[in-house]
Amino acid sequence: MQLHIDNSFIDELPADAVTDNHVRQVFEAAFSYVNPKVPKQPKLLHVSPEMIEAVGLNLEYANSKQFLEVFSGTSVYQNTKPYAMAYAGHQFGSWAGQLGDGRAINLFEVLHNQQRWALQLKGAGKTPYSRQGDGLAVLRSSIREYLCSEAMYHLGVPTTRALCLIETGDDVLRDMLYDGNANYEKGAIVCRLAPSFIRFGNFEFFAARQDYKNLKKLTDYTINHFYPHLGSPSKESYKKFFEEVKQRTLKMIIDWQRVGFVHGVMNTDNMSILGLTIDYGPCGWLEGFEYNWTPNTTDAENKRYRYGNQPNIALWNLLQLANALYPLVEATKPFENILNQYKIDFEVDYLNMMRSKIGLVQQLETDADLITRLEALLLKYETDMTIFFRKLCHYQKGMTTEGFDLISEAFYNVEGLPETLKMAWLNWFGDYNHRLQMETANDTQRSEAMKRVNPKYVLRNYMAQLAIDAANVGNYELIDELFQLLKKPYQEQPENEKWFAKRPEWARHKVGCSMLSCSS
Ligand code: AMP
Ligand code: MG
Question: Same structural domain for residues 12 and 152?
Fold first, then answer.
């Protein structure tokens, strides 16, 4: 099997002159050449047939010795040179300086069917950007990234993808809860893919060092390859570039809010310049609808990256990108206008997205109020987001009490629901029913449309944890079961009804289920 290698990033951007893996500050370079760590006893745990095909390979090759060697970092694919990318970033609201691929190693880029894919190993050892880290990843976080990214793709959310999951045979020391109790865990590597892994932080890296020559090179490269329709590099195209990054980022955030996804670590180094969801760490899907929820224990106090704050944080991150790109445009007004437009667009797009979730096609002035009242009810009493909206797909015009009965399965404590709240719900259903009279679609048509935006299956953290617990004792079947389930999140899958259920009580406070640390 031969891959069609077409390296653009390392061919067109400046390399770090130093060529070993020792930790250092890197200047005037977009990346450093590195050597992946040779793992002790690599074992292929899972491959994505779809992505194998997307890069021009086949399943037979995926099961070959050479595949395992290349994608575990054991050997380097012919005529390629692995590298780690240089980036900086703002973490939790503060400038963090140089970060970079501390445990991600890009193998190469391939072109297949006119699509460019950069292939990257996460957890393949130290790079110049590893700082105090070991460059490795544990099986638990690798299973999560592998399943989460594919789940997001099939939910219709822009995201990086995953090619394969490999256990390294090496033990990795982690203090999972940061409480002084470090333990050895199984090491693993995910090979992930994206047209490019460039982040907001790559631009910040050059801007912070006032290296405007390379800032321009990076921006021109990004536009030429990924935004070619914006035309040749100029102040005009830089503005249009920022405008489109804003638009893509906004679309991604609206999708996150729609499916109840919480990223958990929205630092600017985790923001893709292509508007893709990237870096699946302590992330997760809402169970109870809750603006304040974040799965990230490291952020438990301030909850900067809570569900309800994601739209604001994306805007804040875009502002940091604007600051980085400013030297190329030398005017603030265009950036201000675009950032202001984000707020206006968000209101419109969010409202339309919520309309679609409750089956409204017509746009009425009163819809915002109906939706705000619905959210207030969901927030008042622990209600499972996924189950609520999916059950609502079965609503039929004329229902009031029956409408309430339909969704009551989404309450975590059905018996404890106060009578006043039930009255408020009946009230809301009365208004909803009234509103649906203005729609032309019949119940079946509306239900079908709603089912296309309200998933039946999401990867709840306890589900991922079950797959992790099994894998840690050598049983990998659940990884595949969930992988298959999450390929069709909007479809009824009668054989998988057990996964259409509220989070079980045992998982409410369990590590890995309700809370996740950045330790990975
Ligand atoms: P994250 O918050 O996971 O996106 O990571 C932030 C930064 O820390 C990035 O530069 C990562 O490459 C780096 N990093 C995270 N974990 C490790 C690790 N185990 N070894 C080396 N670098 C790491
Ligand atoms: Mg990251």
Answer: yes
Q: Are residues 190 and 220 in the same domain?
A: no
> Diameter of the chain by CA atoms?
71
Per-residue pLDDT tens digits for 364-417: 999 999 999 999 999 999 999 999 999 999 999 999 899 999 999 999 999 999
Whether 51 is covered by a domain: the verdict is yes
Look up tokens 């380097």; give the residue. 76
Q: Is 175 touching ligand 1 by the criterion CB < 6 Å?
A: no
DSSP category for residue 284: E
Q: State whether the beta carbon of 99 lies less than 6 angstroms from ligand 1.
A: yes
**In 10 A of CB 420, how many CB atoms?**
9
Residue 1 pLDDT exceeds 80 = no
Residue-number span of the structural domain to which 306 is assigned = 201-355
Torsion, Cα of 53, 56, 58, 62 (10° steps): -100
Same domain membership, residue 238 and residue 309 = yes
Instruction: Identify the CA nearest to 44 among candidates 74, 14, 17, 85.
Output: 74
Which amino acid is present at 248? R
Amino acid residing at 390: R
Ligand 1 mutation target, pool 32, 131, 139, most atoms within 8 A of CB? 131
Substitution site in 130, 138, 516 for ligand 1 pocket (most atoms within 8 Å of beta carbon): 130
**pTM: predicted TM-score of the whole model, two decimal places:** 0.98
- Total domains in the chain come to 2
Q: How far is CA 326 from CA 238, 242, 336, in A?
A: 9, 10, 11
Ligand 1 neighbourhood includes 187 CB (under 6 angstroms):
no
303 and 166, same structural domain?
Answer: no
Whole-number Å distance between alpha carbons of 520 and 515: 13
Beta carbons of 239 and 334 less than 8 angstroms apart: yes
| Residue finishing a domain among 181, 197, 213 | 197
Alpha carbon separation from 508 to 287, 294, 435 (Å, rounded): 10, 14, 36
Answer whether residue 304 is part of any domain. yes
